[in-house]
Amino acid sequence: MAVTGNGPLAGVRVVELAGIGPGPFAAMLLADLGADVVRVDRPGGGGLAVDPAYDITNRNKRSVLLDLKSADGPARVLDLVQRADVLIEGFRPGVAERLGVGPVECHARNPRLVYGRMTGWGQEGPLAHSAGHDIAYIAVTGALGMIGDPDGPPAVPANLVGDYAGGSLYLVIGVLAALQHARTTGTGQVVDAAIVDGTAHLTSMIHGMMAAGGWQDRRGANLLDGGCPFYGTYETSDGGYMAVGALEQQFYDAFVDLLGIEDQAPARKDLARWGELREAVAARFRTRTRQEWTEVFDGTDACVAPVLSLREAPAHPHLAARGTFTDFGGITQPAPAPRFSATPAAVRGGPALPGAHTESVARDWDVPALYPLED
């Protein structure tokens, strides 16, 4: 496996202290973009019971085994830190400090280091030291309460909104911004990426719409939350679903024409008749299969698409043509994103197995003390 890729972050060195969820995903994104990411795994593993051979959030990385609770474990991490540009950790507040690898110790060895911290609640606040998961973080920010049917409980959007959108992506943005600052000034800093902060930030547009009177503070009653009959999902005759997003007038006109309800559809701006419009749309979609409706709307500006499963998505003609998914090491997985014209990213290696690269990292990073620790 190559030490580093040809992506825009080629030459950037990252130390990742092993964790679960948003931290590893953020490090994967940096690795996808070409950074040399060394994951410090703990002997015996930890976290969720995912077979390391299938954990693609550890692709494009290298792994060393270090026990941070051993006498010389923290010293070996600081040896890596001295040669790194970025460190990422996802412990609860205060844990890295107790282990001897907190920001003070790391910056004493490397003042230019960008120290990225990934937590749910942040480094301070009443809940900072409490346990939590994605669902709790998005619950208190108002994001979870926006999603789902108005007559049912909020719908859980997997762990995409909190862990990865509000967490990982904000950590990566913060790390890259701080890295630019460090290269300009020679001074590193701590990036406090809290999932509650990032998720709240994602709702910025909605807060603006609510302040302007264009959004009701309840789910299933608004333009973009399923309350609108021409922005939602509809069941087909075979139990599949179609997604409709015909918001603008010209797209809506194409939609009702191709759906075949132009003569029975009430004015789309008549909110009092939205229920009637929804019933007409739903009844029409139930007359054909998902595939038949896909063929009707394919290539049009009606803004309608089939709702595919995770296994179906890679075969979608557009995604297949773009190579949105790739096969590597027998695992079908999303390809790196976004795309770059001059420094393309790629999947260069499969999931890094714990400790598999101790020797190569010791050599390439000039930390010879690492290798003798390997059993």
Q: What can be said about the biggest beta sheet?
A: 6 strands, parallel
Q: What is the element string, with H for helices and E for strands?
A: EHEEHEHHEHHEHHEEHHHEHEEH
Helix content range of the residues, please?
25-40%
Spans of at least 5 consecutive residues whose pLDDT stays below 50 are none
Question: Strand order, biggest sheet?
Answer: 3-2-1-4-5-6
| Total beta-strand segments | 11
What best-fitting shape do the alpha-carbon axes yield? elongated
Number of helices: 13
Feature tags:
375 residues; alpha/beta; six-stranded parallel β-sheet; three-stranded antiparallel β-sheet; 13 helices
Description:
The structure is a single chain. The longest helix has 26 residues, at about 160-185. The chain has helices at about 20-30, 75-80, 95-100, 105-110, 135-140, 160-185, 195-200, 205-210, 250-260, 275-285, 290-295, 315-320, 360-365, and strands at about 15, 35-40, 60-65, 85-90, 115-120, 190-195, 230-235, 240-245, 305, 325-330, 330-335. Helices cover about 35% and strands about 15% of the residues. The mean pLDDT is about 95. It is elongated. The protein is of the alpha/beta class. It starts with 12 loop residues before the first strand and ends in an 11-residue tail after the last helix. The protein is built from 13 helices and 11 strands. Helix 1 packs across helix 6, helix 5 packs across helix 7 (about 195-200) and helix 6 (about 160-185) packs across helix 7 (about 195-200).
